[in-house]
């Protein structure tokens, strides 16, 4: 449990740091008025002054290192949470054929095959 919490704390910390750096890098859009037309989709959508979200768009467009790190951190955090949930509660989440015996699988397959043949004979299935 501790190793998952530690991974989440580190992931969230790196996400926060990279978010602030990307936000700072994107604030350069204020000085570049020629780019406002092409890099401010949220400003055009909400009809306001330059949106804070447009800073991230500008940063991703011209300096994509930290926005990429942000995306990797989000994926890592989601994967740690997903892995923890699967390990904690494998029943109901982990459905695999390994849980069934080979005989059960063969008999279920045979039943499905018989049902399909009946439907073919009736002309309901090609």
Structure in words:
The protein has 126 residues and is an all-alpha fold. It contains 6 helices and no strands. Helix 1 (2-26) packs across helix 4 (52-62) and helix 1 packs antiparallel against helix 5. The longest helix has 25 residues, at 2-26. The chain is elongated. It starts with a helix and ends with a helix.
Structural class call reads mainly alpha
- Work out the radius of gyration: 26 Å
Distance between the termini: 53 Å
Mean pLDDT, as a whole number? 84
* Secondary structure: helix percent: over 70%
Number of strands: 0
List the helices and strands and how they pair.
Blueprint lengths: L1 H25 L9 H4 L1 H6 L5 H11 L2 H24 L13 H21 L4
Give a short overview.
The chain has 126 residues and is mainly α.
Primary descriptors:
about 130 residues, mainly alpha, about 70% helix
